[in-house]
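In this section we walk through a basic example: taking a raw amino acid sequence and producing a predicted 3D structure, encoded as discrete structure tokens. The instruction is simple. Fold the sequence below.
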Amino acid sequence: MKVSKRIKAINKNIDKEKEYSVEEAIKLLKDNSKVKFTETLNCAIRLGVDPRHADQMVRGTVSLPHGTGKKVSVLVIARGAQAEEALKAGADYAGFEEYLEKIKSGWAEVDVIIATPDSMGELGKLGRVLGPKGLMPNPKSGTVTQDVAKAVNEVKAGKIEFRVEKAGIVHTALGKLDFSVEQLSENTRAFLKTIVKMKPSSAKGHYVKSLFLSSTMGPGLRITKEETAVSTKHE
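The resulting token sequence is shown next.
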């Protein structure tokens, strides 16, 4: 495989065998970002769980202290006054029948869908459309709620949803590389703290097996296992 000059230059500055602290890894990724757009800091954490068992499914949300740096497009499925509340809170779209019809027609140009409990009967029929795209609202993630204004505010402020994949890995984005090292470190530790707290009681052996931070076009840097313990001490 032909290696580009950019990758060769990056490889000179990193040690793929080394385990880095969160701050070290973020600084390296920032210093070696040479592309013409603002890269995203990505996290991949491999857990010692078997998602095929319901009691080992790790799924939840976390509010990143400094947000994601991404403009999040939000649709709220609600009627009347609640739709109006959602729009006032900053939702990009809000309504009921018209958006159900748009979704049925294949429209899904949003990042998050929030719904009121009484709308889930109709919205649930669109599971085959929304499910594969990760857009189906869920009470556990706070996207099925009566308080749509609060949910919109949380999502816009940097609340993200995550879930473990079949291979036991959780992937998520933790901010943009133009954030400061401190901001990205705080976002990373907020995420790690949440993951560690969610360890299923039925999970045996090592819970966090590996942890990597990477940028959109950069290398994956292995993070020390001590960081998952240290992260719980950073309130």
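Looking at the output, two observations stand out. Residues 15-68+159-233 form a domain with the Ribulose 1,5 Bisphosphate Carboxylase/Oxygenase fold (CATH 3.30.190.20). The mean pLDDT is 90. In the next section we compare this with other chains.
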